# Entry
Amino acid sequence: GEDVEQSLFLSVREGDSSVINCTYTDSSSTYLYWYKQEPGAGLQLLTYIFSNMDMKQDQRLTVLLNKKDKHLSLRIADTQTGDSAIYFCAETIYSSASKIIFGSGTRLSIRP
Amino acid sequence: GAVVSQHPSWVICKSGTSVKIECRSLDFQATTMFWYRQFPKQSLMLMATSNEGSKATYEQGVEKDKFLINHASLTLSTLTVTSAHPEDSSFYICSARDQAAGNYGYTFGSGTRLTVV
# Structure
């Protein structure tokens, strides 16, 4: 079945690294995404990774994919107050008409 | 980059009335659009997949007669909440897929906050 799970909350100190974790169940997932949602706003695509990749880095963001364990993580280096938001892990499954399935979202809060 | 415009951004309506929400792809054509519903502090729940020129595909548990979807052109999909009730109050978000952009071509609208009183 299609299921994406994340922890609900994460609190980090400003300047530290944040690591948000996600697990998924469908082995036929093709692309995995990280989206950011600020209060009252839509979703902003942060980064994505194809399922045959292990890692992708984009400036402060590093995505790690362990396909064997169906585990995805997003690392934000040097976390800033502007990074406070909800982060959604998501996957597309081609067997399901390319729809995106979202995790529950992780609320990231930054401590001074 | 690809832009999806969603309108209105917020709406308040009386119980029993209908509300229409528009989702437009501004600079690309979208044969497929998606409608999501998000309750406070919860994730996005896919309601339906809107297909240009054909009927929408609804997810299990979503009432197709209550949430009418029309995708009459390659740049516009509409969601009409019919006979709205307070429990329909939610944040509705649309997404359009830019086929030319590949699998990262899912762009989201800014959402519509519906309050039914």
Chain B has a mean pLDDT of 91. Chain B has no helices and eleven strands. Chain B touches chain A through 23 residues (CB under 8 Å).
